[in-house]
Each structure stands twice: as C-alpha cells, then as structure tokens.
Design goal:
Helix content is 36%, strand content 13%. The protein has 206 residues and is an alpha/beta fold. It has a six-stranded mixed sheet with strand order 1-6-5-7-2-8, with helices on both faces. A two-stranded antiparallel sheet has the order 3-4. The chain binds zinc ion. The site of zinc ion has 4 residues, from loops.
Length: 206
C-alpha cells in the first residue's frame, strides 16, 4: 500500500518537473530558432546547483568576438566545456569549475537562442554579485568594440519582453551585469540598448 502511494507521489513529481521544463521551452517566442540542451547535446551539470526564484533579468556579453562561421551547437558545447572546468582567466585569476554554463540563455550572432543552465537554478559569476534571482541572458560578442547584429537586436526585442511577462519581472529589474558588479560587461554598445528593452516591457504591462 505504502509503496503504491510512493509510486504515485513520484509520478506526480515527475509530471510537475516535466511541466516546468515545457513551460520554459514555451516561453521562447515561436519565431526565434531555439536550441534546447537536448538539441545541442549538453552534458549533465557536474556539481549541485541552487534553486532560486526569478526576480530580475540581467544581460551579459560573451566578451569574445562574434563567430558567424561557427554553429550555435559548437558554441554551446565549447562554452559548457569551459564552464565545467577550472581554468585560468585572461586577467590571471583562476575560475573554479562551475556546475554548468553560468547563463540561462545564449543569443548568438544570428539571433538564434541556445538553452544554457536550467532556468530554475541560479547562475554563476566571476565577479562579486550573487546571481541568485537573476535570469541571465548572454549575447554573443564583445560590445565594447563590436555592434549588435540586426538579428540579435530583433531576438532581444522579442525575447526579453516574453521572459519578463512569463516570470513577472518588472521593467526596472531589467538590467546588466555592470549594474551589479565591477565589470565592463555587457559592453557600452549593448548597455545603451537596455532602455529600449525596458520600454518594451513597460509597454506590454500597460
Ligand atoms: Zn557579464
């Protein structure tokens, strides 16, 4: 009898988890090409992660040059490999091994979106701020020097309002990495776009 109850509870928990997965998949607007973890062949997380409740959306850049000739799948796999290993950073500091990709969503140079860390878990950072509660969106490029592509712009204009709506994130809580930590991220050319993204979120809330 008790075993039967246990089985029912386990089945219900499984259903709940798959519903949450579906919800995070459905939140990406249909016109955006979306590569799930399954589609790019993600490895499982290598360490435990902290679950969190989303209250903010925070934008980053990869700080590396845009790579139009590489596929999104290749980029996700190499980002995961870098993320899950301990490695030496450009500034000489050591980065510890992280459970997984530190960001939840990756917007590539063609405006396609790759699924990073499961949105239900807090991300990671090399800088002194706690990313718990932040939905982390990273945009491919070094926006201190490079411009966003039209396709990246178009994706952000659709994606950010959709995420804000789904996770009830107010316009004022749409910000960037440098609003929380000592960093140039997301670069000055992406930083100036944030006002427009907040506008779009504000408009849909009216
Ligand atoms: Zn950043």
């Amino acid at each position: 009898m008790q075993i039967r109850i246990l089985l029912i509870v386990a089945a219900m928990a499984g259903l709940l988890i798959s519903c949450q997965r579906m919800a995070s998949k459905k939140v990406i607007p249909a016109s955006i090409t979306y590569l799930t973890r399954e589609a790019w062949g993600a490895n499982p997380p290598v360490l435990p992660m902290r679950s969190h409740t989303l209250t903010r959306l925070t934008i980053h850049h990869t700080a590396t040059r845009q790579l139009p000739e590489k596929t999104l799948g290749d980029k996700m796999r190499s980002l995961q490999k870098f993320s899950q290993a301990e490695s030496l950073l450009a500034d000489g500091r050591m980065k510890p091994a992280w459970a997984d990709i530190p960001y939840h969503l990756y917007v590539d140079v063609n405006g396609e979106v790759g699924q990073g860390r499961d949105i239900m878990y807090a991300g990671d950072s090399n800088t002194a701020y706690d990313p718990a509660g932040h939905l982390l969106v990273v945009v491919e490029g070094n926006f201190e020097e490079e411009e966003l592509t039209q396709k990246q712009m178009k994706t952000l204009h659709l994606l950010v309002p959709a995420l804000a709506k789904r996770y009830k994130i107010p316009a004022d809580s749409i910000a960037t990495h440098k609003d929380y930590a000592q960093t140039a991220c997301p670069g000055k050319k992406l930083y100036t776009e944030v006002g427009q993204l907040q506008q779009l979120v504000r408009k849909q809330a009216d």
